[in-house]
Amino acid sequence: MSVTEADPVAAAAPTRPAVLRVLSAVWRSYAFRRILKAVLTVYLVATFTFFLVRLLPGNPVEVYINTLMQQNGMSYDQAANMAKALYSFDPGKPLVVQYLDYLNGLLHGDLGNSIGSPGTTVGSILVAYLPWTLFSVGIALIISFCLGILLGMAMAYRRNGVIDHVLSVIGSLLHSIPNYLLAIMIVVFLGIQLNLFDVSQMRGAYSPGVTPEFSADFFSDVMYHAGLPITTYVLTTIGSWMLVMKSSTVETLGEDYVTVAKARGLRDRRIATAYVGRNAVLPLFSQLAIAAGFVVGGSILIEQVFQYQGIGYLLFRAVNDRDYPLMQGIFLVITIAVVLANLVADLLYGRLDPRIRIGGGER
Amino acid sequence: MTATVGTSTLESPTVVRKPVRPSRNVVRALTRSRSGTIGFVLVGLIVLVSLLGPLFTPDTLPTDTSSVYLPPSASHWLGTDSSGRDVLIQVINGGRTVIVVGFAAAILSTLIAIVFGSLAAYLGGVVDSVVTAATDIVLTVPQIALLAVLSSLYHLDNSLLLASLIGILSWPTLLRAVRAQVLSLREREYVEAAQLLDLGTARILSVEILPNMASFIVMNFMIGMTNAIYALVGLYFLGLAPLAGHNWGIMLNEAWTRGAIFDSDSVFYILSPVIAISLLQLGLVLMTRSLEELLNPRLRQD
């Protein structure tokens, strides 16, 4: 240890203990290591997509160059130049340089240009689509998390009662039906057979002709279009929140401090919120992040069913158009969203549960 | 049954306790609760019909343009599809791929999780750090999105390839669970006894530790199968896996894209694969929950 730290320390000898103490505190801090892990994950996924798109046999760059040569009668150099502009890389450069260029571009937010819509940067397309997914998924998760927790606690308190049994069955049913199948059923039954609403009008993120602005009209229009995806997300995630919260609450109810609180004669409501609820909900926070990742990643299915113009819909379009720069950008952005959700949940969990912070590690 | 349990405890009153026939324990655990039994029967029936049914039905169905989108009738119990083919036969023939690929993917992810999860927990140190870090990273990769991207690069027309891809992407949650479980089992007395006897890591893990986790592993295997079927049918529904042959995902895709949803005579057609998949998933979830209750006694509702 002391050998490696010799150089910087020699220059600033008087401040050494303070600086070192801060440095070691930072290194040992849970938050720092967690953020480092998140950055590392994003870096690895970016690297993985780089090699996936450029190196594997039949990689899209080669395919694109060959298509250009065959269809437009270009020479290899011309075609390679086109590919270079689109994928923002130069096949003539050594691989390491290409890789560094790619990473440099990423750091500056440069994800290349879209093939499907020439002249448009991937970044600008993402900015137009991503907010709608984050909006619909975010609202849905908040609703289902809060409702699920309340219902789960109710089930735990009324164990073996009517509420518990009915909600258990409903929870298992909703939990087991894949969300896109529920979405199909909503469209087929409510939309077409019963004609409760016009599914085709509800497509898109907002109605054509409506300009995005901060107004009640725009908001209600947005909610009208996001209504079906949000309903689907809420219905298909609430079951597991209920069941997990129930088991967590049942476990908490058996803890000694709950018995003590009862013995002290505290009011039931206070025990339920300050003692049972607060502790029972803790383990659910890390699952919230996993759920967020799962829902954002799975949005390709739901957004395709409802034709809701979020990032999942965009990914489907990119895959069908073989728009590789766009695909690469979307995949990266979805991964970053998942990593961020995990990071926030873990940091929040560390804040909420002191045992994590003090323990420093996983033990 | 009670007699055997009685004698075995009489014979070996020591701490070295080994479970007898874990497979029988798992079946008993599955059918212990009412919902578990329902799930067991549901999955059993669907698997039986899907594996044996195709033996009694024609492989290729004649297309008949004069009987397109028929409602259910005596000759076509669930109606016909866009080419006039019988829907019921398609439902019977369409389960095999889904079940086999789901099963294979779950086997693969369970194997990866068990081998690396138990080694990480048992050996600790560098192995544990590397495995845990790899797990955290793979856990954040969005599965459906990656499968969608891969489907544009490769023709995912091979069931085995699909199963491997899904399996390779879905081990992290199970690995975490296995690791936590082995960490706690490692401290048990009978494991310490085996360590004192110097039986070797592989033997201790496979003979002393893993059999005690049989129900736990089966539970996670079923979770893995549920997720694999979700991903597989999703890929087919989006049309990202080649639409060749019969399976529930392809039926779903065809019913959705060829306008069957707007035809009120075709409700049974589009509902058939939806209900078949949902029932299979429901059965798996009920079995999973039944085992979960067994493993976590506080959840029991007796």
TrEMBL record, chain A:
Q: Which residues cross the membrane?
A: 35-56, 129-154, 166-192, 222-244, 280-306, 326-349
Q: Where in the cell is it found?
A: Cell membrane; Membrane
Tell me the superkingdom of the source.
Answer: Bacteria
Instruction: Please report the stretch or stretches of sequence annotated as the ABC transmembrane type-1 domain.
Output: 130-349
* GO terms for cellular component: plasma membrane
Q: Which GO terms describe its biological process?
A: transmembrane transport
Q: Does the keyword Transmembrane apply?
A: yes
**One Pfam family from the UniProt entry?**
BPD_transp_1
Topology of the protein relative to the lipid bilayer: Multi-pass membrane protein
Query: What are the protein's UniProt keywords?
Result: Membrane, Transmembrane, Transmembrane helix, Transport
- Family (UniProt): Belongs to the binding-protein-dependent transport system permease family.
Question: Which PANTHER family would you find in this protein's record?
Answer: OLIGOPEPTIDE TRANSPORT SYSTEM PERMEASE PROTEIN
Protein's name in the database: Peptide ABC transporter permease
TrEMBL record, chain B:
List the membrane topology term(s): Multi-pass membrane protein
Pfam families the UniProt entry points to: BPD_transp_1 (PF00528), OppC_N (PF12911)
GO cellular component term of the entry, any: plasma membrane
Per the annotation, which location comes first and is thus the protein's main one? membrane
> What are the entry keywords?
Cell membrane, Membrane, Transmembrane, Transmembrane helix, Transport
Q: Which GO terms describe its molecular function?
A: dipeptide transmembrane transporter activity
| Listed Gene3D superfamilies | MetI-like
Which residue ranges does UniProt annotate as crossing the membrane? 38-56, 98-123, 130-154, 160-178, 228-248, 268-288
Localization (cell): Cell membrane
- Which InterPro entries is this protein grouped with? BP-dependent_transpt_permease, MetI-like, MetI-like_sf, OppC_N
Domain ABC transmembrane type-1 residue range list = 99-288
Question: Its family?
Answer: Belongs to the binding-protein-dependent transport system permease family.
Listed name of the protein: Peptide ABC transporter permease
Q: Which organism is it from?
A: Actinocatenispora rupis
